[in-house]
Fold Putative ATP-binding protein involved in virulence.
Amino acid sequence: MRGKTMKLLDLTIQKLYDCYNYNIIFNTDVTFIYGANGCGKTTILNITEAIITGQLFKLFDYTFKKIELRYASSSNLEEIKYIQIVYNKENLSIKFDGEEYKFNNANGGEELRLSERNSRDIINYYFNRYEFLIKIKNTFNYVYLPLNRSSVLYDYDDNSFFTRRYKTRMSLSADSSYTHSETRDLAMMQIETLINYNYSRINSTITKISDTFRNDIFKSLLEVNRKYNDDELIEAVIKQRNTVSTLQKTKTAYIKMLKELDLINKTEEENYTNFFAGFIEEFKVFQTNSLKGFKLDFFWKFQEISKIKNLITLAEKMEQRKSIARKPIEVFLKTMNDFVGNGEDGKEIKINSMGTVFFTTKYCTNPISIQHLSSGEKQLITFFANLIFNVKSGTSGIFVVDEPELSLHLSWQKIFVEKTLNINKNIQLVFATHSPEIIGRNRSKMYKLEKQYIEVEVGEQENECFRR
């Protein structure tokens, strides 16, 4: 299923803590889960994260009878699939993709003695022993963004380039030369690494596009040179429907292309301008007198114009490809600056030629680390960096965000969802929120979360239920 666009449909939980049931229905675009404090919004998000990231070991933190998550491909929502998990104290019974699996709780055992419950070592421990967990994870393009931290910034692969780069940055942060390393925000270090990695990757892509352009130029010139003999050239010129206006546009586009590629100086620009000016005058006469009195040299000039037109076409295609490659960076900067640029400080998020993200203000043009952004700005940059750079190109993603409004200014809340959906209309958003401002005009997308209490005998079990 890797590469398909999966949408969550609903989540059913039976006898959570032996006390209550849940049934949550997800919209395929955006769902706002709301409800009173203590209704279980964060618990629902955490359980959803555990399932979709394949980290089923986290479900041992809860007691329940059965959990079922239903999902489908966006191209065929009628073909419903599901993951079903049954809790048996020491193990989980899982049904997934037509297969049944058993999953044992190794936490605290001889093989697994780690103090960090969410450490990468624990994840790798389970993933190395249960291949189906990786299969579950690979079914979804999922990123979970709980408040003030990011639990998933990259695939769980210690050998990946991105992971190695992140570890390098972490080691640098411990170096004495890394100013105030002890106070640096871990989430911001992850974002710095994420942006730096993607900036480098985009630059590499642009370099390859430029190399391809140079090769295409060479092939194009060879093709034009062998295309015509004298008679064919004259016939081709007669058939062409050139106008003075199109020739002027060709001149302007060609000189612009050469300037952008830094392939022309002032003298050469004047020479090209004179060449086109002279040719256009000859062309005006040609329009009046047709072939009468024209030398073959005029038609060979037309071949040069044909070469130039081909080069312009190649350059336009190259720029389109470069523009597509640069788009994530441009969208990230524009989106962030739409939020932070309207404050009193006039902040502006920037990325330098080395891929380092920073900001300036109207009072200070020197680069300032994003470590010094406000808590709300840090939450924004965490969310949008993941949304833009961490969703695989051409596919959808599932983003779950826990109470984003807690660190967002009221004016930001009003545009947050709109900006998010404008970036990627294919993603599925699940918000846990108390804020009517962040919901805005999307009230039809609200889902009220309520505990469905199970009748139990009055006693310790019931008291335990109501203590949760």
